[in-house]
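Risk register update: the risk that structure generation would not scale has been downgraded. Supporting records follow, first protein first.
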Amino acid sequence: EELVSVLPDSIEEKKAIVEQLAAELKDWSFLEPSVPQPEMLDQALIRLHTTLQTQSPPQSWQTQSLIDQVRMVLRSLPPDEYQTRLSYLPHMIQKEVQSSLESLILLTNDPNPPTLNDLPRPLVERFVGKNGKHLLQVYCKGDFWDPNTMRQFVADVRSVDPAATGNPIQIYEACHQMNRAYIEAALYALAAILVTLYLDFRSVKDVLLSLVPLVLGMFGLFGLMGWFDIPLNPANMITLPLILGIGIDDGVHILHDFRRQGRRYRMPENATLTAVTVNSLTTLVGFGALMASPHQGLESLGRVLTFGMVFCLVIALLMPGFLRWISGLLSTAEMEKEIEWETDLRRIINEVAAADDLVHETPPEELLAASKDARPQDSHQDRRSIEDLPSIPMSSRIRPRRAA
């Protein structure tokens, strides 16, 4: 659409180009179209494919694929059908080219620059306002779809006219709004997930442990995207909230299994491993199929989501070993405290059992005499030693068996 960069600035140089075109088109004539030989047409298609592959932008891969399909179809056609089908093509091309050349010949008859009166009225009304102001169209010099180039181009245009508009401005603003919306959606989803996890585990430590597959998986995803030069764009940023939910789900399953097994935890149960693996693989296969899409946006979405799912699944399967290591880091003081508490609990149970046996085996007369002879300080000392022990939960109290 933009031709200014390929034309000279001087009017005299432009007039010389127009005069040269007029001289070349003066004696132009068309030959009778003919059907090219299959070998010649195939070689021409190969040269076109090579040119697109080496000199065209990456988006030309669709055209390259179409050229390959045309070559396959042409090779499969019988000679008679080949001649019949391709006999219409030269006539159609010649008709279109001839019409364009006739218009060009009329324009080159006068090498002087055209005036507004020489231009079509709709074109003049588009570029010239009623107040005499002219419409100025500015084109991006670099690749507009590069985020940095897009941002710099819009900033440069707005530095001249803050009210400038057009497709580039609209595309930039739309991409900016979509990126911000996806980031906000990811943050809102993360906040809701954290609240839900705390209501489930009732422990900040367990909430943080359940985030391990997600956090490490996201680090791996962004690192791989940087390695393969895959930028975040409105097409693939929608994967962030999806990866949040799926990555958290794997961590929650593994951590619930860890809490259920307790100190005897060695490996997750088969049901847990099956649930985590099948859940991740089904999602991975479903979204991974998007990588085969010819649409670049869907292909990018499928590729990013596949990378993220693979990392989250691998970290989730490695998480049991990490949990075993964490469970083995109990401090010596804490273990000694638990042993001391268990020792005191056994002593209390033995004292209660001995007292219960004494009550049922000793006659009432001897119990009465023993109570009169008992020393108060000893009784007080024993009662104080029992009261100083930690309280025992109701579920832990054991009633001793009565003596026979």
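Supporting record for the second protein:
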Amino acid sequence: MTKENTLKPDHRLTVRFNKNELAKLENWLKKSTYHRNMSELIRHLLFKKEITINTYDASLDRLYEELVLVKKELNAIGVNINQVTHYFNADPDPSQKLIYAKKIAPLYEGTTQKIEKLFDLLSELAQRWSLE
């Protein structure tokens, strides 16, 4: 017996569904990532095989956008800190180093604020995940 014969069903069965039942099946088929057509879905349902359904929570989009924004802002602050640090280390004049040190202090404060915002967003995300 070849592999094709074992996988391909060879008996046809006709079944009728009302509108609500059909809508429910179509909804499951849309959400399923494994089933290519209605027949596969119904076979899995009949024989109690596990069906994988992916869900999407659109309310998390705002959180994801804010996380991306905070990441970009932290990256920009990090680039600025690296530039000032480079100038600080390259300049032999101690008075000039003091100027660079004064420039870098607000950047570190900005980093602290962004990290606090990041932790707030992550805790909100963790709360949502723990509720599901």
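The two ends are 46 Å apart (CA to CA). On this basis the risk owner (M.S.) recommends closing the item.
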